[in-house]
Structure formats: structure tokens, C-alpha cells
Amino acid sequence: MRAAPSRRRFLAYGVSLGGALVVACRATERPGRPSAPDAPQPPGAFRPNAWVRVGQDGRVTVTVGKSEMGQGVRTALPAIVADELGVEMAQVTVEQASPGPAFGELGTSGSRSLRTLWEPLRRAGAAAREVLIAAAAARWGAPAGECRGEQGAVVHGPTGRRLGYGELVAEASRLPVPEAPRLKPRRELRLVGRDLARVDGPAIVRGAATFSADVRVEGQAFAVVARCPVFGGKAARWSEAEARRVPGVLAVVPIGAGLAVVGATTWAAIAGRAALEPTIAWDEGPHREHGSADAWRELGRAHAGPVAWLGEGAAAAEAIGRAARRVRAEYAYPYQAHAPLEPRNATARVREGGCEIWAGTQGPNRLQEAAAKLLGVPADKVVVHVPLIGGSFGQKSEPAFALEAVEVSKAIGRPAQVLFTRQDDLHQGRFHPASLHRLEAGLDAAGRVVGLRQVAALTSPPLAFGQPMSDELLRGALSGAWDSPYDAAASAAGLAHVPLPAPVGPWRGVANVSHVFARECFVDEVALAAGEEPLAFRLRRLRSRAAFRGGRDQVEVDPARLAAALEAAARALGPPGAGAAGRGRGFACNVYDGHTYAALAIELAPGEGGRLAPWRVVCAVDAGVIVNPQGARAQIEGSVVWGLSALWSQITLRAGRVEQSTYADYPVLRLGEAPKVETLLLPSEAPPVGLGEPAVPLVAPAFLNALFAATGRRVRRLPLGAADVAWPAAGRR
Amino acid sequence: MTAISLWVNGALRQVEVPEDMPLLWVLRDVLGLTGAKFGCGVGVCGACTVHVEGEAVRACQVRAAELGPRKVVTIEGLSPEGRHPLQRAWLEADVAQCGYCQPGQIMQAAWLLAKHPRPSARQIDEGMANNVCRCGTYQRIREAIQKAAGVVE
Questions:
Q1: The pLDDT of residue A35
Q2: Would you call A391 and B135 a contact, using CB atoms and an 8 Å cutoff?
Q3: Closest of A58, A57, A54, A75 to residue A66, by C-alpha
Q4: Inter-chain contact B21–A267, Cβ cutoff 8 Å?
């Protein structure tokens, strides 16, 4: 028999990690070319592509290319492969990909994982299944069409004969891999749509799961870094003597971000830094006077300056000018921090000619490139491992934090972990930008919206990162503003970018968070001005609008799907009660990035301590096929808690510094404050889209609209204060 | 530096550490028990919760040198095979999202159930009030505690 193992070439490289052989495979090459003579032979496994391999024991290993930070990718993505392949989750081992030629970009962001990998992973699983079926059919001398793959075996329909996948590995490895395998019709999928428990759950509850900060490498030192508390400042002079006297301190190393204090333990490093800090003279740079009031003043001023528009800015302004009735309002959203429970950290082992990095990062490829550049080595000499991430929410996208570990390891000649303390993590953040939104609408005599304009002043992260202005950039920066789903004769959204000192970056829900907050509060105000109930107003303006293009990719958006979600949430809430005192309902809805249709209803009621609190929270989403309903509900539940936390938190600035240091002054919701969230996953046959973010932007407006319904108080500026939710409302009626 | 003996998960461990070193860093950086997590360092998040003589404490707030003969149990020692009723209930309710806070949540909940075997909703609220979950898994934490306690809401 002629051995032509075309997939041998898929084996790109192998690296040893804690005794296990981690193998990345090349997915892009075409079968049929002779294999490279030096390519190592995979030991006894069938590897049809980069994502899946089948061992002789029948064990299936699925490689996950997305970073797991709580959104459930290590469960949902393998389930897609397993379903097409025809194996149970219990047979699947999940492996985390490292950047390499076998894979494309592994970055995790924008609720894109399921949406972009659904088709490729189904093909990967289906191709493996077809090859295994072909191998079994050949052995039986039966037509492949009479065979199917299920529960880890090929079954010959007419005779009931079975061959386990593991028994077919040798033959399958010699067969060509189809490029366009038949995908199972929806009704044949058995895992997709079923509640699947998180694959890392058992390790997590035993304390055995390895998060980024839990990485321990032979000979590793621990470091914390003294960074200038003022944005953009740096250490000018310091004295190491005090720090070096602290037991366990090994070194003080100047790095780009500041002064790294290296210890035998994290505690030694922390104690050493405490001794070092009083000796540091900071060059605080130009922002030492900057405070929150300055930021808000600059944002206000920007509204009088140049605005970059998407849509029909002039036409909308003219229509509003001619309108029978005009509504105007201004909304303010503060700086917010990510505050993931695991602060940023990374471990690096720099050796001659390369390095290994373990980092809970959302962008392993960018980290690999940046580390290679820093060290002056080719990218393939930098191996990036992505352990479990103890929360990220957009924070751990930039490579800078992990490069600190590379710098320290290089300087001390041994592996090093750099950990941000909680205070470091809050002070040295890239925040969700503070923003000031001005909206205006014009209504004609019949109550139709003839013009709608929404302008936001903020530090836009992509522009702050130096990306050139373009319509494409604006479609992201104005997400939720330019692609408002409501019927309006002329509408436009504008961005007044203000380069303020505070660093900004992506935060769960990205640009949508503040734009949708402003828009959905404003829709309520416009509805009331038009004399309509906000819910009915929304439904009418969604139903009267034809499909349009929305989201960064300008995909077709069907407002009727959003109307259906909104109606489902309202129906689940039930008919309004008899108007009990202090009860109020608020709604908000949005099409996230043109893909995910989500509606949220919040009913407030007087709770303990004389304050209004969420009594019912119902979220309805149309996110296409739901791969893992249990995971999908978890994302909605978490999004609501995230959004409720953000009603009360803010990052404030004084003398160029962040004023908050921990969860006491940057509060997040506690168990007793978290409502039960009812999630409705609407049936759909559309391909799956993301769920990690779409509900987040809806929470503030639904809450504030409910607050208005309950109290008549219209809050247009966050965060809330205790008086805003006091009941009975002070001075009312 | 001071030499101390420490009872951890039923074993007597000898370590030499700075005398002001919190238990958390002895566990994580010296003994290699990374189940207790660093979240805040000031006792407001609960990620480092362990048991000392059966009581839930914040390992970042306790000096290892001051523990003496008192017995420490970490998440790794809560049950031999991860079969504590709370650990099973946690899996049944599929509580974890990122999972980082969950060892601390489970250790806190174990103490809560030791004090109140059938906790009321208010007792759960109060007993778990100092454990932060940034992913927002609270609704399932509550469900898991009630499941483990055999309490139906």
C-alpha cells in the first residue's frame, strides 16, 4: 500500500509543555503535495486539520483558538466540532492553541468567536467524519453512503456493523481530506442546542484549574512594578537600597513601564516596592493637573468643535429645524474600569534567541509579535501559552502588560511573573471612555420622527490608538448610534473625538455601551413627547422600518427581529400591574454590531432600605442557533450584573491620577444585590452570533427608563447616587 | 525571615518566610497551592478565602507566622475528590464563568452551611456579601448553595 499521508505536512511544530506534547497543525495547505522530509510524523493519531485529532484510543482532541475568560468558548467551540464528528463531549479533550502558522489570528473580541468559527469548525468536524467513514467503508467493502458516524464510531446502516474511530486512525490517516464535506442538517445535530456543562468546571471547583496567575515555572521569580501614578509620567530618580534590604527581594529592574521589584515571592516584591516607592522622584509629565472636571469641560467644548458624521447630518438637522416638535437631551457616561477579579499578570521565560510567555491575553498573536520585536527575534521563537483568564472584559487585549514580564525575565536571566496588584490594575487601566452625548429629534404633526441626530464627545479608543479616521472606523466607534434600528426619515450620528489624558480601551460592550444608553433613554423621552407609551413607540418604529445595513460589517439588519425580541420580553413580564406605588417598567433594545438582537425589560419595585431595586429582569435575545443554551443564559445573567454594577461605579481623576483603588471605592454588585435574570432564547435557524456583550448596553437605559416610570425622575448622568433610587421619592407630589 | 510550621490540608509544612507574610502568599508562592486566588489584597473581594479552624478567613489578611497550631484548609483540601456537596452543586448549576472567584465562593459557602445548614435567602445574601464575582454568577451561586443545603426557594 502506498502511504501518502498528505496530512503529515499539517504538523507544523511541537513544543513540550509540562510533559504533554502540544501540537499545532497547519490548516491552510492543500492535500496532494509531497510532505516535507523533515516533518515529524504524528505518533498514531488521525489529524485531518488544525482543530481536531483522533487518537488510536478513540479519544478526540479539539484545539480551541479563542481565549477562555468566562464566555464559555472552551465548551461551545469543541461542541460544534464534536457534533459534526459524531462524538460525545465526554470523549473530547480540549487543548488551547498557541499562535503559530497552523492558525490564523487567535484574538478574542467583539463577541465574534461563535459567529466566525461556526462554519469552519463544522467543516473541520465533518471532514474528519467523512474520512473516518471512508476508511470504514473501504474496510467493509461497503458504499460510504450506507455508513454514518455517531458516538465515536462508524456504523454500517444495513448490517449494523460498527468500527470505533480509534480503530480507523491508521487507514484514515492515508486518505485525502475533503475540502467541502457535507454538513449535517440542523435536525441531525445532537450537541448543538443542548445544555452543556463547562468543560473546565470540575477543575475550577477543586481549585485545580490553571489561571494565568497560577502558572509556576521552574526557577520563577515574582515581580510587581512601581509605575508613575500620573498618566504618562515616569521615574526620574530613585534609590534601591531600602528595597534591597527587604527579605526576599532579589533585584530592582528599570523597565519601560516603571521600576520592577523582583522577589522570591510576590509578597517580597510587594514589600520591596513599598520600600522603594518613597525614594522615587517621578517626572509626572504634562498631565499632573488633570482632573475629572477638566475632562467633562473638554467634552462639553468638543460639541462646539468639528464632528465626524455618518449618515445624513445636514438633512437631519434641516428636518429637525422644520419639525413640528423638537426634543433635545444630553447624557453623560463616566469612565469605567474592567476590574476583573484576576488582575493583569504574565509569566515569561526568556532564553537565548527566544522566549516562552504564559499570559491570560485576548490577543496572543499581537503579544507574540510585540515580544519578538522587543527581543529582536523572529516571531516563531516566541511561544505564547494562554491559560484560563480570570476575567478580562476587553482589558487584556493589549500586549503591554505581558511584555513587562518579558522585560523582567530578560533582565534577571530567569523566569519571572509580573503581577498587577488590585490598585495597580485600577490605577493603570485603559478605561471605557467618559462621554457626553447630545441627541435631538424632530417629530411631525402626526408623531413621525422626521429627523434624529446623535453626537458623542469622547476619547475614541481606535483614534487614541492612532488608527486613521475612516467611515469604517466610525461604524465601530459609533456602534449603536449610526445604526439605530428605528424608523426615522433622516438620521445621523457624529463623533467629536477628544484626546484626553486618561488611557482608553475596549470594555465589555465597547462603543455600544454609552451610545445605546443615550439612544434608548432618548427614545423614551421622544415617545413621551409624542404622547405614546415607550414600548408601543418602539415597536411601531421598528415595524415600520425596512431592513437596513448595520454593524461594522454592514450586514443586513431586520428590525422586525428586534421587535419580536422586544415583544417577547414584554410578554414575559406580563400585563402591567395596577400601578402599585414605586413600581415602574423600562425597556431597551438594540441590534448588537448588526448581528445579535437583544431586548431587556426591567421592573423596579421598592426594596429594602427605602430604595428602588430590580424586581423582574427579562432579557430576550435572537442570536441565531444557540449552541449551548446554558452558556448563553450565563452570558445574559452576567451581562445584566455587569450593567447594574456600572450604574453605581465610575473612575474619577484628580491631579492626573485615578482616585479609586479597590472594590470598596470602585463598587461592583454583590450577591444580595443581584436580581434573578429571566432569559428568553428565541428560536432561530440563523447562524449563531455572539452573546457575551449584546445585553450589556441595554441595562442602564432599561433601568433608567423604569426609574422614570416609577418616580417621574429622569436621570441623564451616571453613576447613580442613593437619592436617585430613594423611595418614597423625596419631594415628589 | 522566620521558620514556621503550618498545618495545611492535614499536613504539617515547614517554611521559612518573612514574619509579616500573609498566608495567601505562603500558600501560592511557597507551598504551590494556587487554589486560593489573589483578588484585592485588602480583604474586600473574598477570592483568597480559606478555612482556619473551620472558619472562613481572607488569606491575604492573616499572617502565616501568627497561625501557630491552627489548622488551615484550602479549596484543594475541602474534600478528597472534589465531592463536597457544594462542589457537586456548583457543577450541577454550572456556576462558573471565568471561575477565578469560585474557590473563594465555595470556601465561604462551606462556612455558611456549617453555621446555617439550611440558610434563608437573607442568610445567603449576608453570608456571601463579601465575595465578589465580576462575571456575575450570583444567581447560580445562590442556586448551588440552596441545592447543596437541600433548600428549595
A1: 37
A2: yes
A3: A75
A4: yes
Helix (H, G, I), strand (E, B), or coil: what is residue A551? coil
Task: Determine the 3-state secondary structure of A222 from DSSP.
Answer: strand
Residue with cell 413640528: A324
Inter-chain contact B100–A341, Cβ cutoff 8 Å? yes
Q: Which residues of A touch B28 (CB under 8 A)?
A: 214, 266
To the nearest 10°, report the CA torsion of A13, A17, A20, A21: 0
List the one residue out of B59, B38, B61 whose CA is nearest residue A341: B38
List the single residue in A with minimal CA-CA distance to B124. Answer: A672
- The closest alpha carbon to A425, from A215, A666, A220, A204, belongs to A666
- The distance of B102 to chain A (nearest Cα, Å) reads 7
For residue A118, what are the contacts with CB-CB under 8 A and spacing of at least 6?
Answer: A80, A625, A627, A687, A688
pLDDT digits over A108-141, tens only? 988 899 999 999 999 999 999 999 999 999 999 9
**A206 Cα to chain B: minimum distance (Å):** 5
For residue A198, give the chain B residue with the closest CA. B94
Whether the predicted pLDDT of A96 surpasses 70: yes
Cis peptide before B85 (omega within 30 of 0): no
In angstroms, the CA B28 to CA A266 distance is: 9
Q: For chain A, what is the mean pLDDT?
A: 93
DSSP code string of A26-80: --SSPTTSPPPTTPPPPSSEE-SSSSEEEETTS-EEEEE-S--SSS-HHHHHHHH
CB-nearest to B128 from A195, A393, A671 is: A671
Compute the distance between CA of residue A453 and CA of residue A329 in angstroms, rounded to an integer.
Answer: 11
Q: What is the pLDDT of residues A378-427, one digit of tens each?
A: 999 999 999 999 999 999 999 999 999 999 999 999 999 999 999 999 99
Q: Which helix (H) or strand (E) holds A322?
A: helix A313-322
For residue A218, with 0-12 CB atoms within 10 Å meaning exposed, 13-18 middle and 19 or more buried, which class applies? exposed
Residue B4, pLDDT score: 96
Closest CB to A201 among B18, B40, B91:
B91
Q: How far apart are CA B38 and CA A227, in angstroms?
A: 20
**B96–A198 C-beta distance less than 8 A:** yes
Angle, alpha carbons A468-A473-A479 (nearest 5°): 155
Q: Mutation test of the interface with chain A: which of B9, B73, B98, choosing the one with the most A Cβ atoms within 10 A?
A: B98
- Reduce the DSSP state of residue A355 to 3 states and report it: strand
Residues facing A225 on adjacent strands:
A260
Inspect the interface and report whether the beta carbons of A672 and B98 lie closer than 8 Å.
no
Q: What is the dihedral of CA B52, B55, B56, B57, to 10 degrees?
A: -50
Q: Amino acid letter at A78?
A: P
Q: Which helix (H) or strand (E) holds B106?
A: helix B102-115
